[in-house]
Amino acid sequence: CDSLDKANSLIASRSTPICLPNYVAGELRLPSSPSTTFIDSFAPKTGSLLCRLPCAQQDDVEEAISYARAAFQTWSKTTRAERSRHLRRISELLQEHRELFAVWESIDQGKTLERARIEVDRAISNFSYFSTYILHEQTAARVVDGVALTYEHRSPAGVFALISPWNMPLYLLTWKIAPCIAFGCTAVAKPSEITSMSAYLLGVLLQKAGLPAGVVNIVLGDGPTTGAALVASPLIDGVSFTGGTPTGIAIRRATAHQIRKHMSLELGGKNPNLIFADAMAPATRERTIRIAASAAFENQGEICLCGSRIYVERAAYAEFVREFTEYVAKNYTLRKTVGAVASRQHYNKIRGYLQLAADEKATFNLGAVPPLLDRDGSQGYWIAPTILTDVAPGSLLQQDEIFGPVVTISPFEDEEDAVRLANASEYGLAAVLLTNDGARMRRVGEQIEAGLVWVNCWLVRELGTPFGGMKNSGTGREGGEYSRDVFTVVRTLHLPA
Ligand code: NAD
C-alpha cells in the first residue's frame, strides 16, 4: 500500500480524527515530551473537527534541531547534482499525488479545490525550479587592477527555522523548504497550527522520496510555544518566516542579540490598487474589472498580495463601482468560486471589521455584516464578498490588514493624489496599477512604496524575481539568487595575480 494512500485513509477515517505526527529524523512520530498538549484543528467549510496535532514543546523542538544539525554535516557536503536529484524526485512525487494534496488542502484551509490545485502546482514548481537553479548557478570573479583575482565562495548557512502561515500552507512552506535544502542547508519547519494537514502529508512524501533523515524536520504546534522555541534557539542559524507583522516584530525582538542569524521576514500587507480612468476605456474595461476583482477576492482575499484598497480616478469612479459590483456579484459566489475563511477566530476578526464598517456608516454595495457564529460553529466560516464605499477618512478599514473577502473603494483626483493614497500605509508589500498610459506606468509605478508593483496584471510570478516587502511588510527578498543570499554565507577570496 502506498504510504500516501495510507495517510489518506487515516485522515479520511470518520470514527476518530487523526492525530498528526511530527516528521523528525526521517520518522513520522508523536512527540515524546510528557508535557505535550494537543490542538484541535477544524474544517472551515463545515466547522467540524478535522484532526488534532501535538503542540511541540521546547525539548521536542531541541530534539528536531539536533537531528537537523547532525544531517547538516553530510547534506552541506553533497554535490549540487545530488541535491538536484532529490528535489526533482520530490517534485515528481508531488505531481503524482497532486489531487490528494489539493483535496486535503482545500478541506483543511477552506479554499476552493480549484484554488488548491493551483497552489499544489506552484509547490511542485518550487522544487523543480530550485532543482535546476542550483545546477546553473554562477559565481562572480573579478580581476583587480591586474594584481589580484577575487571570487565569491558561498557555503550553506546552516540549520534554518522555516515558519509559514495558514493562507497558502503547502505553497508557502515549500517556497522555503525547496531553496533551503537546494543550497545545502537543513531545516526544522513549522506550519501554522490552523493548517498543518499538508505539512503532515509532505512529511510522508519526503520519507517516501528517500530524502536523507534529518535534512527536513517538521514540527507541529502553535506560535508562542513551538515557533518561539524554534526561532530563539542558539542552534538555529537562520529564520525564514512568513506571517503577520506583529509576529515578525516578536521574532526580531527574540533574536535581536543573535546578530549572526540570517533573517528573512515576509510580513503583512494592505495593498493599493490604483485605477486610472483610461483603464475603463471600452477596449480594456473588462480586463480592468477582472484584474481588480481577482486581486480583491482570490482565495477569499486571504493572499498577502490581495489589493484590498481600491482607488479609482474620480472621472470613472461611479461607473467603476457599479460595474465592479455587478461583476463580483456574478462571478464570485460562495462555495463555487469563494471558499470559507480559514478559522473561527479569523471569521470573528473579519466580522468585527464589517461591524465597524456598519457603525461608521460605510455603504455596503455588496455583502453585509455576517451573523455571529453559533457555539459549535457547525455552519462553517462563510463570509460573502463585501464591497464598501463611503469609508470614513482615516478609518481602520483602510489601514488594518483584514485579510478576508472585503474591499474598499475610494476616489482620487490626479496622479499625485493616487500616489499619496497608495503610500498612506504602514505596509509596502504589493500594488496594482491599471492604466493604458505607458509613461504613467513607470512614472507612478516607480513612486509606489511596495516591493512588487503589477501593471495591468496581478499575481504574475517568476520564481527568480525578488519577492518581498518594503516598510512594515518585511525585510529581505526571496526567489532565485535572493533565496541564495538567505541560505548561504559568502566569503570573498583574494588571490595574487
Ligand atoms: P501569524 O504571524 O499569526 O503566524 C504565522 C506563523 O508564525 C504560524 O506558523 C504561527 O504559529 C507562527 N508564530 C506565531 N507566533 C510566533 C512566535 N512568537 N514565534 C515564532 N513563530 C510564531 O500569521 P498568520 O495569521 O498565520 O498569517 C497571516 C499573515 O501572514 C498575514 O499578515 C499575511 O499578510 C501574512 N502573509 C505574508 C506573506 C508574504 O509573503 N509577505 C505571505 C502570506 C501571508
From TrEMBL:
Family of the protein in this entry: Belongs to the aldehyde dehydrogenase family.
Protein name: Aldehyde dehydrogenase domain-containing protein
SUPFAM superfamilies, per database record: ALDH-like
Lineage of origin: Eukaryota, Fungi, Dikarya, Ascomycota, Pezizomycotina
Transmembrane residue ranges: none
Alphabetized GO MF terms: oxidoreductase activity, acting on the aldehyde or oxo group of donors, NAD or NADP as acceptor
Keyword Methyltransferase: no
Taxonomy, superkingdom: Eukaryota
